[in-house]
Specification:
With about 270 residues, the protein is α/β, with parallel strands linked by helices. The protein has a single domain, classed as Alpha/Beta hydrolase fold, catalytic domain (Rossmann fold), CATH 3.40.50. The chain is built from twelve helices and nine strands. The longest helix has 19 residues. The N and C termini lie far apart (about 65 Å).
Length: about 270
């Protein structure tokens, strides 16, 4: 063992010297460094999972962002928001928070009171006011055909899980996604409880945090008129419409979704 002592000592001495040089670097160099990019947190909605953000996450990572696609429990709005809020509290520095579909209701509640959340991005998403539920908002304007595609699964402890029937999934949820991919999405979808979709929202974070919105005009889950109404009410800094895109616009049009999130990160209208 003695023959390794001298090289190891030399190595440690070199490392210590390098550390000292780093510590002694002029403060001016740190002052001129580019500000750190915010962490992007992505929250999926009902009938999907975190992998639905893969295309968006890949593009944002290539642009230098740290990205976290969280696992939304889809059990109840207050509980889902609490889980997301706990994740946000574990992140150091500024955050841009994006939600898809029911995930919009989650981020509306999860960001409340968190000063590090600098922007909310709603991708084909609910933007509820206090006391409103996802089911309320989806039914406020005509056009949603989701209800007729759902399969109910009673839960052992009470309550009901909801799935989109696999044979109807692509037409309902993802008509502009390649058939092979939509078939996999249908098979791997995560159910949401009926209670979660009917649970009233708390006070909305969008009243204190700037928001951006994306409206796919071919959405059959949330009517485009409802998406426009919510974005306007929240005074979204920018509302982007994607002509003919489905509810699964984050899968079919990841470039457009990543572009909007980056606009929000930069505070651009």
């Amino acid at each position: 063992m003695a023959r390794f002592a001298r090289p190891l000592t030399a190595l440690l001495a070199t490392a210590a010297a390098a550390s000292a040089l780093t510590t002694a670097a002029p403060a001016a160099s740190a002052a001129t460094a580019s500000p750190a990019k915010p962490t992007i947190v992505l929250v999926h909605g009902a009938f999907a999972d975190a992998s639905s953000w893969n295309g968006v996450a890949e593009r944002l990572q290539r642009r230098g962002y740290t990205v976290i696609a969280s696992a939304n429990p889809l059990r109840g709005l207050a509980d889902d928001a609490a889980a997301t809020a706990a994740l946000l509290k574990s992140i150091k520095g500024p955050v841009v928070l994006a939600g898809h579909s029911y995930g919009g209701a989650v981020i509306t509640n999860a960001a409340r009171g968190n000063d590090e959340v600098k922007a909310l991005v709603y991708i084909a998403a609910f933007i509820p006011e206090k006391g409103e539920s996802a089911a309320d908002l989806a039914g406020r304007h005509p056009g949603s055909t989701l209800g007729e595609t759902l399969r109910e699964v009673p839960l052992p402890g009470g309550g009901t899980d909801l799935y989109v029937r696999q044979e109807k999934f692509r037409k309902q949820f993802a008509h502009d996604v390649p058939a092979r991919d939509a078939k996999l999405m249908a098979a791997t979808q995560r159910p949401v409880t009926a209670a979660a979709l009917n649970e009233p929202s708390g006070a909305p974070a969008w009243k204190d945090i700037a928001s951006w919105a994306l409206v796919p005009t071919g959405d059959k889950n949330i009517p485009p008129a409802a998406l426009r109404f919510m974005a306007k009410r929240a005074e979204a800094r920018a509302t982007v419409e994607i002509e003919g895109a489905s509810h699964a616009v984050l899968v079919s049009r990841p470039d457009a979704v990543a572009d909007l999130i980056e606009r929000a990160a930069a505070g651009r209208r």
